[in-house]
Structure formats: structure tokens, C-alpha cells
């Protein structure tokens, strides 16, 4: 190999290759772009919920099961996307995956606005969901790329989680009121929001370290240090067989072999599915029991959004307690699990309790504001669980956080797509009180998982088969 003389070496890159060393301003911009992409994605998930009756009237559809498809097919797309886009972002970079998928999401949002038939709308929603699944799977990896400090990364992930909740809670309000002018207006306004987001996304820099190192190496390929720096990414770019058997299979492998990923996915899947089931259950409760219009029913999701915002304050309060204890040298902060999981230990019981609150106060003899206010602690509990477990996954798997988060995103979308299909049958047979209570009992059982992680998490991390296989692959 020919090695160039020192005099012939190119000047160092103006922007540091290591995203951990980027300026606070640059990191804040990347955080904002990620939150914008996620907000667009999650807004689309519940977008048709307030427009169902208008869509049914326009296309002459009266089958209640069919009318759940515009939402459930979008969530089915969420199943397919993360297992592809998360791992691909760890091979080809975060920026190209984010831009290409957002471009296709834009196209299929436009297609939904122009759908000529109900079947076409369902198909377009499926493809919109596939490409909208990229930001939730990739953005967590982006934040892990730029924040080395667990405190900063945790706060970024908490803000990211808030964005994932605010999106779907705004969807029913938009569609409930816009559909009065025609249900297509729901998608036209969503397309306007997408268009306003594009200037920010186009400025998103690449954040994945191995890709940045590879690009630097290509401009100074004679620099042996730079050439060696790209070895890790080249291991995942060998051939198509390797791409499908190792890279794209990584989230599935993590789900099957990593106990932390498996049980996190199970818990997140249930609470996520209950959240999306409420988009079908709220009309049964507030339109059926209280005689509200679709727009008024959409407003009942505002308390959940308020709870989501309040959960961020709870997160900051706990984070300050943790940082103070760390400064004082308290022994309990030496346990890694105490950095995140106590939030889920608070959020889990709170989440379950508010489901029972909704179940037994939803009655025409009780003012509608009582079950509606249950959405505030519901939103707090929901986000605390997500903040804790998503951050725990990001901390535990570092550079492969996108694959761990892709596994979580894909699995929760499976239940999120399936469970709402059973809403009408479940509420019809069990009634509002016991159908909702059943969800409360299931969530209460799952609330034990964070406590188990605190007790056994260190052992699980130290004996991680996935971590051992990664070490073996780097030593070959």
C-alpha cells in the first residue's frame, strides 16, 4: 500500500467527525429536526379517527371493522418499517434513510387526500405508515449519536417521547373539525404541515459516527488511521446476504435473545395498543354515552396531551434528584437501573389506576369532565413508562440503539394494529366498564416489569448474548 507523505495530507474537516463534540447549537438543531419528523409521523397515525363517519358516508362503507382499517393499516406499516429502516440507518447513515422515507411519506399523504375509493385509501394509508415508521425507529439512534452524556441524552429522549404523544392526540381534533368541510381536508392540512417541515429536514446533518468516519476516509484514503476507522461499518456492508441475514435481522434477533428488549417490547406494546384502542373507545364513550360530535370527542384527547407535557416536568424533577444524589455520592446511583426505571415504577401503577378511573366514571349520570380528566394522569403514566424504557434501551445498547428501538417500535405496532380491531366486539360484549377494566388489569400485570429490571437488570446486561456476539464479530 502506498502511503502519502505528511505534506500531502488534506486539511482536517471543518466539522468534527465525532458528533459527541458538536456544538450545543448544532445538537439542538438536530434534536429539533428529529422531533419535527416524529411529530409528523405520529400525527398521521390517528389522523382519520375523527373523519371515520365522513369517510363512511362518502364511500358508502357501513362495516365497522372496515372503518378501523385507515388507522390499523397505518400501524401495520409501523410493523414493517422499523425492522428495515432502523438497521439500515446503522449501515448507510441516518440522514439518507430519514430523507428518503420522509419523501415517500409525503407522496402517500398526498395520495390519501386524492384517494378515489375506500380500498385505495386503505392501501395508501398502509404505505404512508411504512415510511412514517422511519422517524420513530431512527430518531432515537440519532439522539444516541450526538449525546454521550446520559443526562443530556435522557432529556432529549424525553422530549422525543412527548412529540410522539402530542402528534396522535392532535389528530382526532384536526380530523373532527376539518372533516365538516370534507374529510380530504384532513389530509390536505397534514400535507401542508409536511411541506413546512421539509426545509428543516433538508438541513439535517449525518450523525452516525462510522458513516462520518467513512466519508472522511474517502477524502483522505491514504490516512491509515482513517481507513482503519471505517472497519466497523464495512463489516455490515459486505454483501446482500450479510445485509439480510445480519443487519435487517438484528431487531428480530435482539427481540428473541435479549431479555431486556423482549420484556420492554411486551410492556410498551400493551400500553401503546391501549392508547390507540382509545381512538376507537373514546367515540363509544363520549359520542355514544354523552352525545358529543366528532370534533367535541376529539377535544377529549387534550387532557392526554396535557399529561404528556406534565410528564416531562416529572422527568426533569427526577433527573435533578438523581443528579444531586450523584453529586453527593449516594450509593443507590451506582446501580445503572436507577437512572431511568424508577420513572416507570411510578408511571406503571398510575397508568393502570387511571384506566380504572375512566372505566367506572364513564356514565351518563356522571358529568363528562370526570372521565375526560382521567386523561391527564393517563398521559403522565404513559409517557413516564415510555421515557424510562426507551431511555433504558438506548443506554443499554449504545451504537445499536436504533435496532433495539426498531424492535420496540415494530412489536408495539403489531399489538397497536390488532387490538383496536377488537374494540367494538369487546365493548359490545363486556360493556364500557368491564372492557376498560380488562385493559387496566393487563397493564397492572405488566407494571411489574420495571421493578424486575431494577432487581435483575445488571445480571441481564452482563450476560447479554447479543453483546457477546457483537464483541466476537469485532475481533474476527
UniProtKB/TrEMBL annotation:
Entry superkingdom: Eukaryota
Protein name as it appears in the record: Major facilitator superfamily protein
Species name: Hypoxylon rubiginosum
Amino acid at each position: 500500500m502506498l502511503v502519502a507523505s505528511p505534506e500531502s495530507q488534506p486539511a482536517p474537516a471543518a466539522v468534527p467527525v465525532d458528533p459527541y463534540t458538536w456544538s450545543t447549537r448544532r445538537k439542538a438543531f438536530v434534536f429539533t429536526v428529529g422531533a419535527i419528523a416524529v411529530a409528523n409521523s405520529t400525527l398521521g397515525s390517528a389522523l382519520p379517527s375523527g373523519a371515520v363517519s365522513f369517510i363512511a358516508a362518502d364511500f358508502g362503507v357501513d362495516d365497522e371493522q372496515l372503518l378501523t382499517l385507515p388507522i390499523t393499516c397505518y400501524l401495520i406499516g409501523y410493523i414493517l418499517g422499523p425492522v428495515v429502516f432502523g438497521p439500515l440507518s446503522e449501515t448507510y447513515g441516518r440522514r439518507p434513510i430519514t430523507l428518503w422515507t420522509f419523501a415517500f411519506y409525503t407522496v402517500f399523504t398526498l395520495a390519501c387526500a386524492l384517494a378515489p375509493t375506500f380500498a385505495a385509501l386503505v392501501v395508501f394509508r398502509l404505505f404512508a405508515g411504512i415510511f412514517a415508521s422511519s422517524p420513530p425507529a431512527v430518531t432515537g439512534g440519532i439522539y444516541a449519536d450526538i449525546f454521550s452524556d446520559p443526562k443530556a441524552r435522557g432529556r432529549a429522549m424525553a422530549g422525543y417521547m412527548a412529540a410522539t404523544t402530542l402528534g396522535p392526540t392532535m389528530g382526532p381534533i384536526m380530523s373532527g373539525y376539518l372533516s365538516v368541510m370534507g374529510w380530504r381536508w384532513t389530509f390536505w392540512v397534514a400535507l401542508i404541515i409536511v411541506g413546512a417541515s421539509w426545509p428543516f429536514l433538508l438541513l439535517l446533518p449525518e450523525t452516525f459516527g462510522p458513516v462520518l468516519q467513512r466519508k472522511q476516509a474517502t477524502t483522505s484514503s491514504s490516512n491509515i488511521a482513517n481507513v482503519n476507522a471505517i472497519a466497523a461499518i464495512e463489516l455490515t456492508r459486505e454483501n446482500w446476504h450479510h445485509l439480510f441475514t445480519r443487519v435487517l435481522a438484528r431487531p428480530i434477533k435482539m427481540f428473541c435473545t435479549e431479555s431486556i428488549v423482549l420484556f420492554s417490547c411486551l410492556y410498551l406494546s400493551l400500553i401503546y395498543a391501549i392508547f390507540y384502542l382509545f381512538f376507537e373507545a373514546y367515540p363509544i364513550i363520549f359520542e355514544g354515552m354523552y352525545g358529543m360530535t366528532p370534533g367535541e370527542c376529539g377535544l377529549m384527547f387534550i387532557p392526554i396531551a396535557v399529561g404528556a407535557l406534565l410528564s416531562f416536568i416529572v422527568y426533569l424533577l427526577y433527573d435533578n434528584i438523581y443528579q444531586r444524589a450523584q453529586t453527593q455520592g449516594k450509593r443507590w446511583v451506582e446501580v445503572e437501573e436507577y437512572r431511568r426505571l424508577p420513572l416507570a415504577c411510578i408511571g406503571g401503577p398510575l397508568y393502570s389506576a387511571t384506566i380504572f378511573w375512566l372505566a367506572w366514571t364513564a356514565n351518563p349520570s356522571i358529568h363528562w369532565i370526570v372521565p375526560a380528566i382521567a386523561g391527564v394522569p393517563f398521559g403522565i403514566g404513559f409517557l413516564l413508562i415510555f421515557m424510562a424504557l426507551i431511555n433504558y434501551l438506548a443506554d443499554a445498547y449504545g451504537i445499536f440503539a436504533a435496532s433495539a428501538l426498531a424492535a420496540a417500535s415494530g412489536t408495539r405496532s403489531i399489538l397497536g394494529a390488532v387490538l383496536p380491531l377488537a374494540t367494538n366486539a369487546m365493548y359490545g360484549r363486556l360493556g364500557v366498564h368491564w372492557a376498560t377494566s380488562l385493559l387496566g388489569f393487563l397493564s397492572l400485570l405488566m407494571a411489574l416489569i420495571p421493578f424486575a429490571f431494577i432487581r435483575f437488570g445488571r445480571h441481564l446486561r452482563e450476560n447479554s448474548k447479543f453483546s457477546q456476539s457483537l464483541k466476537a464479530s469485532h475481533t474476527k
